[in-house]
TrEMBL record:
<feature type="region of interest" description="Disordered">
    <location>
        <begin position="1"/>
        <end position="45"/>
    </location>
</feature>
<feature type="domain" description="CBM6">
    <location>
        <begin position="49"/>
        <end position="172"/>
    </location>
</feature>
<dbReference type="GO" id="GO:0030246">
    <property type="term" value="F:carbohydrate binding"/>
</dbReference>
<dbReference type="Pfam" id="PF03422">
    <property type="entry name" value="CBM_6"/>
</dbReference>
<protein>
    <submittedName>
        <fullName>Carbohydrate-binding protein</fullName>
    </submittedName>
</protein>
<feature type="compositionally biased region" description="Basic and acidic residues">
    <location>
        <begin position="1"/>
        <end position="26"/>
    </location>
</feature>
<dbReference type="InterPro" id="IPR005084">
    <property type="entry name" value="CBM6"/>
</dbReference>
<dbReference type="InterPro" id="IPR008979">
    <property type="entry name" value="Galactose-bd-like_sf"/>
</dbReference>
């Protein structure tokens, strides 16, 4: 699912055996946002809680099919998250502590699984890899724990290896 050495960067964190990369001298992210779309009017999400994937406040695409900066569509899920995309969610975390993050994902066997990083503000927390789920509508829950600070923050899901779908994320 991608060799971290191919990204020519230093490992930042290694919880759960995964790493999130940080480019030398840069903050944690996949690419500089040259195709970023903001969704005005999307409110801040309360944590603990569940966030539908389409309720992001900003989305970065790496020339998704020569797309212009238009919002992603999808009431239930977003099709085909691609490598080097990210989704950002504004959140209010009611209490500092360890939270269980659950992602509802689907990936066809022919495309394999996925690889994503979880970043709070600009601090990389966790890298999560998962296998194919058996089809585009065969959903699996991927769960990991992350430590979150109290207050207003931005949670960003950075896609390192794409070709899968995301329905929602829950923080409990």
């Amino acid at each position: 699912m991608g060799n971290p050495d191919d990204r020519r960067s230093d490992a930042v964190k290694e919880p759960d055996g995964g790493v999130i990369q940080r480019d030398k001298g840069q903050r944690a992210r996949s690419l500089r946002p040259n195709g970023t779309h903001a969704q005005p009017g999307v409110g801040r999400h309360e944590v603990p809680g569940t966030i539908r994937v389409s309720e992001y406040h900003a989305y970065h695409h790496a020339d998704r099919w020569n797309a212009v900066d238009t919002p992603l569509r999808g009431d239930e899920d977003i099709d085909w998250l691609a490598s080097d995309e990210w989704l950002a969610y504004d959140v209010y975390i009611q209490a500092a502590g360890r939270y269980e993050l659950t992602l509802d994902v689907a990936a066809a066997d022919s495309f394999g699984g996925g690889d994503l990083g979880i970043v709070v503000d600009d601090d990389p927390l966790r890298r999560v890899e998962f296998d194919a789920t058996g089809g585009w509508y065969s959903w699996d829950e991927i769960t990991t724990e992350i430590e979150l600070p109290r207050g207003t923050h931005t949670i960003r899901l950075v896609v390192f290896e794409g070709g899968w779908k995301l329905k929602q994320l829950a923080l409990r």
